[in-house]
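User: I'm curious whether this sequence folds into something compact or stays loose and floppy. Could you predict its structure so I can see for myself?
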Amino acid sequence: MDQELSELRFARPSLLMRAVKWLAAKRKPVFPHTADGFREHMASRRKPDDAPMPERFRDRFAVEEQRIAGHEMVTLHPRAGPGEWHMLYFHGGGFVLPMFKEHWPLAAAMVETCGISISLPLYPCVPYASHEAQEELAMAAFETLASRHDPARIALGGDSAGGHMALRLALRLSEAGGPQPGKLALFAPWLDLTMADPEMEGVEPDDIMLKIGTLRACGEMVAGASDPASHEVSPLYASSSALAGLPPTRIWTGRHDLFIVDSRSFATRLAEAGVDVRLYEYAGAPHVFMAITPTREARDTFALLKDFLSG
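Assistant: Here's the prediction. I'll summarize afterward.
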């Protein structure tokens, strides 16, 4: 990969990062580590609920709550008032899980570090809603924000499946030709539901959260009647002409994350399409490491995001 597109921020993981990874590896995984286990889990689970926003946030932020396409969207503003930039942020969870409790402090850290406002749609999960319904809610959320704020000062962001949603929204908006977001910030985005690149096999032993077979099974469920390898559900395969319409983009991914492989490929494709892109990599960091907000790596991510939005 072109070294001008990618930057290794730290050659070694911080002590706190290593400690958190060690503890996380001892816990029950979010998803079973086999495809069959994932399917059995999904067939027997109860419909999950979003983790509620911590009540103390009402003292730390100016909180705005509204309904978008029948679902709640929470906006966190700095106490001093709305930020110059407004981020529309989609949480991760493989499209099948709701808001994690860890997503709230992640959003809070971005508001406080970057001085921005963040809107978080609590979108419905597959299979209780389709992937297409999730995308329609994302579009409705952007249109609502764009009616109140300068679209050029709206950034789209998200982690994992949420990064996929932010990217797909940006592609749809570019195709539609209407108001466009100003920037795109992706945390460990899931770019290919088929997990096709064989280089992922070399990363898998170090990934404490994600497993190829599990993700392929999840991708098949999310795609529904669509081909999971189609660009509509796997934006890694979007055409060069479609990619050319994207705004300046930054990607953050750990090197102990399966998605690092596709992040590198995607950054290369964006650059070839003429997009202003940069990929930041972190040695030994797991999937969505920035949610471990006290770590050196997370603080660095937020500082880079602040620079990106102020540049």
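Summary: The longest strand covers residues 61-68. The mean pLDDT is 96.
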